[in-house]
Amino acid sequence: MRADVIVIGGGAAGLMCAFEAGRRGRRVVLLEHNERVGRKIEISGGGRCNFTNVNASPGNFISRNPHFAKSALARYTPADFVALVRRHRIAYHEKKLGQLFCDESARQIITMLLAECEAAGVEVRTGCRVEEVRKDELFRVSTNRGALESESLVVATGGLSIPKLGATDFGYRVARQFGLKVVQPEPGLVPLTLAPRDLASFQALSGVSVPAVVRCDGAEFAENILVTHRGLSGPAVLQISSYWSRGRELSVDLMPGADARPLLLRRRASGAELQTALGQNLPKRFAQVWCEAFALRKPLRAYTDAEIEATATRLHDWRVKPAGTEGFQKAEVTKGGVSTDELSSKTLEARRVPGLYFIGEVVDVTGHLGGYNFQWAWASAHAAGQFV
Ligand SMILES: Cc1cc2nc3c(=O)[nH]c(=O)nc-3n(C[C@H](O)[C@H](O)[C@H](O)COP(=O)(O)OP(=O)(O)OC[C@H]3O[C@@H](n4cnc5c(N)ncnc54)[C@H](O)[C@@H]3O)c2cc1C
Questions:
Q1: Ligand 1 nearest-atom number relative to CA 52
Q2: Residue 361, ligand 1, Cβ within 6 A
Q3: For the residues 335-343, what does the mean pLDDT come to?
Q4: What is the pLDDT of residues 104-155, one digit of tens each?
């Protein structure tokens, strides 16, 4: 069987690229090994799909080349995707920080993408696992259901996160097979684990959430951190996890927007205990456990000025050294992927392999938490869809 374009992977990026190419009159076949397309879309945003972020800009993406995503992002904006959503009469709302969610269900986004594929004449084959790719004159793709040939081949197989939803390393294997560099894939937007010693003091706080500013490697995020039975999670920690690497410390400001020093001095003067004093700014249980672990064994009124200073510094710059991450089982995305050095930022085509394209999460472009990863999937897919 012969097509103009074969798209491997029926996720966000693959579906969008397929219908963009189909609209141009290209004969497109999309191959997905799951029994249905869009499994990640289905569970995204807690089942409501945070499908874009109105504030998306290149600064919300991590890549070895921070400039790479600019071109595609500029040519397909959040407003473009919102226009598509509105055309399909899908009700949505902004939850916080520019994050747009469906009012009803993430399934509406999948229905919309499939409707666009159908209108553009795309043939969607599910239950079809691509096993091998070769290139002679044309690309030849072997699947569990026979072979196909095409002029253009789009790899939209995503990253390694959540293997039980069908994630594979197939995209990276194809890249390496054609001699393209792959930046080591690592879990991103992932809960961080603590060493048993640190966990011992904090496990009692499992489920407690604290507003904080978390910093690492030049990045900072002001949102909640959540203590879990294995370590730390919550939006601020998920965000910073994409910047964290093994052996590094996080700096956590537990009193963002406040100045702990005068506050502690005032409370020392009033005779309050540190734990009670902190309980006015932090959840009481958290204040108690934090004091047991880090405060001096004496009443606040006995603190010297230097000790007040040191405690204030610790509250604003609490150093936490994660032991690791919860891995691809729990990661929302995969950092790293097909090196952007190998791809045209305009078309997403491999510079050294004409006709071969990589889009979406398989590429070394990773968005922050909050609808940015889908925006990259749409934008990169749209870009490639104009050229395949
Ligand atoms: C729990 C969770 C919640 C998320 N929530 C959000 C959110 O609200 N907002 C946001 O922006 N991002 C969110 N993300 C991230 C977002 O889902 C991904 O970045 C996005 O889906 C990537 O799209 P993609 O098309 O590149 O890859 P994928 O969606 O992973 O699609 C790749 C497809 O390729 C298929 N495939 C793989 N190998 C083969 C093969 N050999 N043959 C055939 N098919 C194959 C897979 O089955 C899959 O369907 C979330 C992720 C997770 C895990």
A1: 11
A2: yes
A3: 98
A4: 999 999 999 999 999 999 999 999 999 999 999 999 999 999 999 999 999 9
**pLDDT > 90? residue 201:** no
* Percent above pLDDT 90 for the chain: 94
Does the pTM surpass 0.90? The reply is: yes
168 Cβ below 6 A of ligand 1:
yes
Query: In ligand 1, which atom is closest to the CA atom of 361?
Result: 26
Q: Convert the pLDDT of each residue in 36-60 to its tens digit.
A: 999 999 999 999 999 999 999 999 9
Q: Is 78 in the pocket of ligand 1 (CB under 6 A)?
A: no
pLDDT in the model for residue 355: 98
Cβ of 371 closer than 6 Å to ligand 1, yes or no, is yes
**Adjacent-strand bridge partners of 92:** 102
Predicted local confidence at residue 272, as pLDDT: 85
Return the residue whose CA atom lies nearest to atom 6 of ligand 1: 44
Residue 95's pLDDT is 96
